[in-house]
């Protein structure tokens, strides 16, 4: 797992003399993570919709083929 440099430095400091103190929430990093998660969810939804459309198209083509075969065999 990749640990960001500021966090690594903090963890290293906590094991030694403890010169640093814990601060507030890193708003920028939190927002970047949130946006990355949103993009991932949207991409997953797009892929899922595309798969459904592909499945629907294949099912439609198959039913049309069966209909055509039934029409030909009844003639």
Can you characterise this structure?
With 75 residues, this protein is mainly α. The chain has a domain at 50-74. Helix content is 79%, strand content 0%. It is built from two helices and no strands. It is rod-shaped, with a radius of gyration of 28 Å.
Compile the SSE list and pairings.
Blueprint: H1 5-15, H2 27-74
In short:
By secondary structure, the protein is an all-alpha fold. The chain has helices spanning 5-15, 27-74.
Which ranges are low-confidence, i.e. pLDDT below 50, for 5 or more consecutive residues? none
Name the structural class: mainly alpha
- Nearest-integer average pLDDT: 84
Proportion in helices: over 70%
Question: What's the alpha carbon Rg, rounded to whole Å?
Answer: 28 Å
Core attributes:
2 helices; rod-shaped; 75 residues; mainly alpha; 79% helix
């Amino acid at each position: 797992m990749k640990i960001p440099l500021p966090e690594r430095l903090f963890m290293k400091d906590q094991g030694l003399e403890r010169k640093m103190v814990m601060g507030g929430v890193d708003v920028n990093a939190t927002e970047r993570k949130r946006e990355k998660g949103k993009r991932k969810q949207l991409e997953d939804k797009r892929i899922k919709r595309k798969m459904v459309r592909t499945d629907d198209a294949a099912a439609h083509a198959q039913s049309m083929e069966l209909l055509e075969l039934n029409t030909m065999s009844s003639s």
